[in-house]
Backbone:
């Protein structure tokens, strides 16, 4: 094989002389536009034909390029040469070589190979009868058929020009098809990161196809509108492929870097001294596409590029919209971290061997207070600052997501994600908009070393741990455990039972009688609430109203208890028990309700029960924490003749000043101060202090949990007036209470005292 690059010019004889004669004069040869060649292969077993072809084509320029001739003397040699030189444009092929049909067999081999679909084949024969023109053209995919005896220089140049133009057009069409295919692929994969890269690569290919050049160029895009310094290479073709992903500023080729930067800065197409096209996306970010051609453009090419840019600009706008949708689907728009859906998907996608991983729910303490005090705008800045602190202290390996307004999910390795790291993140005050804020966060953590489960279950476990941490106090952290989960789920089941019982009217009151500890006379009872579970089990009476408060139905339940209690008092009055006093627990939520006192008044009026037969119990914590706010409500209750007692006094943190100001009538000693045990002596001293305090303040004292005669005698000797306990009488329903009382009263006569065993 050898290549011939003919020089320009040449002289010859007549225009119709055969090829083997001296070449004739032709028109002036155009100067080449680019330093590239069209490859033409001459396949013939006659050395004179090779020499005459070189002479005839010497200096010829077709469509701006010179010719490079490749030579083979047989079909077999030509096949081997073609495999090493795949970009041959035209094949000048003899028919008869090593065999009579060697050239035709080579044609068949080439046409069966899709890689050579653009190759133009010109059959040249010195024996036309060996391969008749019509029959051969019909049987084989041959582009031209020439007899050597008729092939003059001008005829040969014309044949080559025609076939090279056809080859170039086919290659341009193929390049356009490939560019469109890339764009279609990019449009179909816009949800993926490489959507923009594929689209940009298609843009380069199409630009080059329009200009009739091989795909070579690169595209850079701004990461942020107006920031040329943050632009990156998103696509490249040809020799520039390794630049993909680099920052524009890091591109070492200054000509490419400066050209792209100028295009972005001046926001216009640059068509002189190198083609660089400018596009603006819908979100304001700019894209610049540079192709590897510095030749001047024709008017037609300029117009084509203008139309092309107008059409492609719409595509970039659509890309920006899709990218925005993808971002919204996966990330929080304010904080630019994963949203709940995407965070949950990552949690679900963890591999089975993730035992060294920890999941955390991190909740900002009193964020609502920050919003109320400083406004939502500053609140947003606080969230951003908290996320920045968490990212810094928990490390790059830890995944962060926003799961609620002020609640974050964190997923990381144990050394990175720990209570200490979370505390350290917010140890120093935040400085936001000139405000110095000390922010804390409470966290619930789950170690993912247990049995594999769903993301929803893991988040629920973390939520359970978070609730326990919040119960402990602000800024605390709590790890989830199986015991904690069982306890929480049991409480949730009880809440479900409570809601069902309320909805189906299965709430019932139980009454535990209360007696005068000196005389044993019955003075009243404490009302306790019970309800059945789904399994049919009836929960024992309890004075703890926290479960009812958590259910969100305390007002409905409280009204039911008050009405049922008044109805029971009304029935007892008809049986002659007119001095019987019923004590009912009420919560802070009930006392704060605007309709509480009017509702209480209505209950008394409709039942015909005087207020003196009713007593309301409030817990010590409620009484102390809401002393000032509750005073008007409690005074209104006492104005109805209703007594007020403080329940479980001595188990909390009472203020004597607050107690002295509260309108109350009784102090109730909790069961804990009477229970025998290791600290019984200490409890007894506390109980005595409560009794003495009540006497000093002029308040009656009631004891709960009086279960032995010794306890009754001890309390009575020290001045405790009343008591209740299982040994006096267990809780009972309304009918049992009426029977129990009937056994101790003769209508109109004195009651029989209640006695306890020693």
Residues:
């Amino acid at each position: 094989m050898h290549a011939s690059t003919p020089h320009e010019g040449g002289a010859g004889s007549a225009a119709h002389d055969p090829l083997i004669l001296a070449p004739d004069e032709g028109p002036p040869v155009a100067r080449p536009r680019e330093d590239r060649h069209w490859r033409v292969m001459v396949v013939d077993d006659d050395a004179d034909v090779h020499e005459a072809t070189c002479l005839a084509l010497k200096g010829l320029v077709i469509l701006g390029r010179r010719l490079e001739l490749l030579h083979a003397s047989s079909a077999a040699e030509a096949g081997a040469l073609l495999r090493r030189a795949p970009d041959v444009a035209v094949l000048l092929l003899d028919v008869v070589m090593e065999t009579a049909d060697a050239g035709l067999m080579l044609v068949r081999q080439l046409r069966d190979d899709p890689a050579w679909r653009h190759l133009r084949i010109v059959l040249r024969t010195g024996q036309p009868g060996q391969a008749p023109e019509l029959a051969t053209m019909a049987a084989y995919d041959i582009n031209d058929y020439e007899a050597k005896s008729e092939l003059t220089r001008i005829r040969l140049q014309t044949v080559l020009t025609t076939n090279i133009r056809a080859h170039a057009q086919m290659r341009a069409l193929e390049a356009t098809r490939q560019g469109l295919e890339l764009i279609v692929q990019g449009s179909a994969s816009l949800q993926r990161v490489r959507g923009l890269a594929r689209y940009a690569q298609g843009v380069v290919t199409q630009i080059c196809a329009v200009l009739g050049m091989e795909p070579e160029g690169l595209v850079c895009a701004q990461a942020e509108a107006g920031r040329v310094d943050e632009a990156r290479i998103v696509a490249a073709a040809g020799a520039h492929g390794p630049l993909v992903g680099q920052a524009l500023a890091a591109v070492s080729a200054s000509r490419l870097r400066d050209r792209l930067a100028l295009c972005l800065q001046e926001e216009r197409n640059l068509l002189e001294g190198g083609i660089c096209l400018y596009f603006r996306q819908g979100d304001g970010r700019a894209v610049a596409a540079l192709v590897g051609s510095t030749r001047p453009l024709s008017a037609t090419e300029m117009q084509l590029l203008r139309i092309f840019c107008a059409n492609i600009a719409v595509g970039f706008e659509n890309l920006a919209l899709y990218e925005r949708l993808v971002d919204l689907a996966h990330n929080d728009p304010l904080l630019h971290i994963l949203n709940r859906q995407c965070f949950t998907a990552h949690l679900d996608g963890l591999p089975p061997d993730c035992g060294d991983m920890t999941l955390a729910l991190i909740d900002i303490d009193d964020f609502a207070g920050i919003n109320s005090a400083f406004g939502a705008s500053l609140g947003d800045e606080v969230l951003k600052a908290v996320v920045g602190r968490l990212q810094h202290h928990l490390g790059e390996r830890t995944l962060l997501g926003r799961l609620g307004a002020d609640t974050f999910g964190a997923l990381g390795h144990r050394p990175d994600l720990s209570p200490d790291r979370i505390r350290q993140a917010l140890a120093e005050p935040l400085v936001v908009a000139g405000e110095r804020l000390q922010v804390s966060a409470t966290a619930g953590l789950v170690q993912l070393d247990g049995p594999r489960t769903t993301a929803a279950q893991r988040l629920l476990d973390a939520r359970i741990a978070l609730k326990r941490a919040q119960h402990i106090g602000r800024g605390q952290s709590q790890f989830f455990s199986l015991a904690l989960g069982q306890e929480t789920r049991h409480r949730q089941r009880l809440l479900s039972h409570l809601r069902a019982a309320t909805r189906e009217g299965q709430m019932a009151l139980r009454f535990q009688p209360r007696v005068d500890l000196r005389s044993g006379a019955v003075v009243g009872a404490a009302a306790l609430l019970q309800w059945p579970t789904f399994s049919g089990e009836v929960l024992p009476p309890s004075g703890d109203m926290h479960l009812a408060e958590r259910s969100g139905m305390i007002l409905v339940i409280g009204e039911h208890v008050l009405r049922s209690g008044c109805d029971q008092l009304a029935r007892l009055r008809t049986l002659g028990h007119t001095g019987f006093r019923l004590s009912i627990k009420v919560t802070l939520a009930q006392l704060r309700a605007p309709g509480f006192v009017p509702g209480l008044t209505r209950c008394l009026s409709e039942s015909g029960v005087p207020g003196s037969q009713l007593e309301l119990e409030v817990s010590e914590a409620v009484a102390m924490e809401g002393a000032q706010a509750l005073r008007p409500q409690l005074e209104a209750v006492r104005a109805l003749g209703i007594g007020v007692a403080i329940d479980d006094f001595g188990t909390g943190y009472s203020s004597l000043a607050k107690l002295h100001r509260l309108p109350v009538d009784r102090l109730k000693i909790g069961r804990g101060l009477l229970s025998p045990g290791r600290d019984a002596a200490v409890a007894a001293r506390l109980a005595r202090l409560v009794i003495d305090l009540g006497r000093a303040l002029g308040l009656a004292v009631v004891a709960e949990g009086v279960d032995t005669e010794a306890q009754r005698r001890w309390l009575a000797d020290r001045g405790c007036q009343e008591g209740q306990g299982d040994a006096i009488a267990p809780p009972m329903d309304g009918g049992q209470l009426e029977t129990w009382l009937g056994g101790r009263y003769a209508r109109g006569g004195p009651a029989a005292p209640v006695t306890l065993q020693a």
User: Anything to note?
Assistant: The chain has a mean pLDDT of 82. The longest strand covers residues 508-516.
